[in-house]
Amino acid sequence: MSKQWALGAILLSCALLGRGDPVTPCGDQQMCVSKDRCLAQMGQYRSAVCQASEVCCDISQVDESVDVTEGTSDAEDLCGMSNPSGLDANANASEDQAKFGEFPWTIALFHKGQYFGGGSLVSQNAVLMAAHLLADKSEADIVVRAGDWDLSSTEESTPHEERQVSRVVKHENFDVKTGSNNLALLFLESPLPRTAHIRPICLATAERSIEARCFVAGWGKKAYPDVDYSSILKKIELPIVDRDTCQNQLRQTRLGRSFVLAPSFVCAGGEKGKDACQGDGGSALFCPLADNTSRYEQVGIVNWGIECGTENVPATYTNVAQFQPWIEQQLKLASNEAE
Q1: Residue 110: is it exposed, middle or buried by C-beta count within 10 angstroms (0-12/13-18/19+)?
Q2: pTM
Q3: pLDDT exceeds 90 at position 121
């Protein structure tokens, strides 16, 4: 899960409304419901506010005879819902480690049995990640692991789930030299179960001013000189850095004064000793929703940086809000093909 921090060639290398009820509004006289609850074909459409498995339906066309509470709790049905206290009191975590099950969307990726990167669950059968991680890798050799915490142990209270990848979709404009448009989707051979420790993250639908501190959770190195990746899921707290500041700070590095920050980037970090690092590539940068500190939306994908944890040197992340329409389009296409 290489973050490609050595920049020889610069990659060098849901939302958003709560669901206390079984349905949520997505517009005037409309609500998010599963597709089978919307009676009129013309009354339904995909909306960024709804989860990937839902449509936005005219209230007058919602089938109220369907039991929407069976088989899942309200918490399990929410995208971006964390478990702040964790799900296993016996799984001790240090300050820089996530608790077991704290961030249910975190994905570990394996190629021929070797861990190589991170991703985020965006639907029960799709993982969002960085395209640069897929160089020289066949989809037939990639395994997605959800619900894990300690990669060196199988003793967690709730077992993880693994799935083979059936199809890979890279963004068509990905530029390996700059890291622009650096994202890809992995579609799974069969859906993952929706449980307390496995559920999707919400996707940012619009750029916004974020004053709260955000997070990256991954199994990469703790520090740049380290030899080994982390076995237990790390929890890295980071500030978002505005574009002008980020570009100016990166120009003070070996990138030089002519460096231009690509439009597809957001920046975070720049604090000494706090950073995503090699092995965290593809993992989500996620921030709390404005109205709920226990729910998060993904605003970035770990892309590249210069070493790790250097003061005043932020790292770059693929801007999820900019690519949210592309992600939704690919999810819809995959859903239509499955039907």
Answers
A1: middle
A2: 0.79
A3: yes
- The burial of 123, by beta-carbon neighbours within 10 Å (0-12 exposed, 13-18 middle, 19 or more buried), is given as buried
Establish if 180 belongs to a structural domain.
no
What domain range includes position 294? 202-323
> Is 311 exposed, middle or buried, given 0-12, 13-18 or 19+ CB atoms closer than 10 A?
exposed
- Tell whether 193 is covered by a domain: no
In sequence order, the 6+-apart residues with CB closer than 8 A to the CB of 339 are none
Per DSSP, the three-state class of 249 is: helix
For residue 187, is it within any domain? no
With a CB cutoff of 8 Å and minimum separation 6, the contacts of 63 are 36, 37, 38, 39
Among residues 233, 4, 221, 231, the alpha carbon closest in space to that of 106 is found at 233
Q: Is 246 a member of any domain? A: yes
48-79 per-position pLDDT tens digit: 556 555 677 777 677 654 433 333 445 557 89
CA separation, residue 131 to residues 108, 304, 315 (Å):
15, 12, 17
Q: Which two tokens stand for residue 175?
A: 């530029």
Contact 267, 241 (CB under 8 A): yes
Please tell me the total count of domains within the chain. 2
> Rounded to 5 degrees, what are φ and ψ at 118?
-120, 170
